[in-house]
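Hypothesis: this fold can be encoded by more than one sequence.
Test: take the structure tokens below, design a sequence, compare later.
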């Protein structure tokens, strides 16, 4: 399938116009567009502008409120809840990240739950931003039901990704971002869009048999990393993302790739820790020493190295967008009033 390289500022403006044409406010559209483009810059196409047609349809069909502004309640010295109000997750994550940083700086630790939320995208960006401010961060999220419970066969739990961010001395934060499923569901959509097969062992079809057809897998069940152990981890993360935050469980939501249905009410959970409050005033240097020990072995790389390399390269070359998708996005954006001419700066995602 052919693709075109689109400059970052251009694809960000296009994404904003697609969302605004569907009924999203300009303020929310800017935050969502920047988050999707940021994922594409890191080479995470499954969470990038590939999602735009689904997001736009969710707004147009009332599955998400494109004008909702999140509200924040501080519940204790180190805890808070952010209500996305059935809106996009990214404005709520921005609010949660800000209050988590404030609370952790004041008390040493913060737990923030996000409720009534949409798709959380690439979690690594929120923890990266917190780690840039010297905090250790953890984030998880639920989704629609795609994974079985421990020992089960029917879809019950979400892919329930988990991300960690650790500050380093004179180096970008160490970011570990992984799905509890063998592969993110967005990767199936990306493979289907490219007309590619998926490896056996990633997913089962609706009949419970293994499949290498991503379109069939989208209607089936994803498999967890480590078998029953991965399913148990997904269960634990489900409790954090939904039970602790007050959100709906994955099995009470529907797929983010489903266009019609009730409004999404998913959940996310952020934990932020100030390492200076738990015994070491120079965590970043100690983290750097451990990273150095890991890298001392030939051929070893740190998690996130490929992501950072993609970011540097694609910032210069532009982002590859499948031609069919690009035509669809331009068609969707045609009814939106043009944005002001962009300058040469990159969009500041989630700031």
């Amino acid at each position: 399938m052919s693709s075109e390289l689109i400059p970052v500022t251009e694809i960000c403006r296009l994404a904003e116009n697609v969302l605004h044409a569907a009924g999203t406010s300009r303020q929310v559209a800017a935050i969502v567009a920047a988050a999707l483009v940021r994922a594409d810059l890191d080479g995470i196409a499954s969470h990038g502008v590939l999602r735009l047609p689904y997001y736009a349809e969710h707004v147009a069909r009332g599955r998400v409120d494109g004008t909702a502004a999140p509200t924040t309640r501080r519940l204790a010295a180190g805890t808070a809840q952010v209500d996305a109000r059935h809106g996009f997750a990214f404005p709520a994550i921005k609010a949660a990240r800000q209050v988590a940083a404030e609370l952790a700086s004041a008390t040493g630790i913060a737990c923030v739950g996000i409720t009534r939320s949409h798709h959380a995208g690439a979690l690594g960006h929120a923890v990266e931003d917190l780690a840039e401010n010297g905090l250790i961060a953890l984030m998880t999220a639920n989704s629609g039901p795609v994974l079985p419970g421990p020992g089960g066969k029917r879809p019950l739990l979400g892919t329930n990704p988990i991300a960690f961010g650790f500050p380093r001395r004179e180096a970008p934060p160490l970011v570990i971002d992984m799905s509890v499923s063998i592969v993110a569901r967005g990767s199936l959509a990306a493979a289907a869009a490219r007309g590619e097969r998926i490896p056996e062992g990633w997913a089962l079809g609706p009949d419970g048999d293994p499949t290498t057809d991503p379109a069939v897998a989208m209607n089936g069940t994803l498999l967890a990393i480590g078998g029953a152990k991965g399913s148990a981890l997904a269960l634990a993360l489900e409790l954090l993302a939904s039970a602790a935050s007050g959100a709906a469980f994955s099995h009470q939501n529907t797929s983010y790739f489903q266009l019609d249905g009730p409004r999404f009410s998913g959940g996310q959970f952020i934990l932020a820790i100030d390492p200076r409050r738990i015994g070491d005033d120079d965590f970043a240097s100690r983290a750097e020493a451990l990273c150095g020990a890991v890298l001392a072995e030939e051929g070893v790389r740190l998690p996130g190295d490929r992501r950072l390399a993609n970011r540097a390269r694609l910032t210069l070359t532009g982002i590859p967008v499948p031609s069919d998708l690009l035509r669809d996005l331009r068609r969707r954006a045609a009814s939106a009033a043009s944005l002001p001419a962009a300058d040469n700066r990159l969009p500041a995602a989630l700031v």
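The longest strand covers residues 79-87. The CA atoms of residues 84 and 314 lie 31 Å apart.
Hypothesis status: open.
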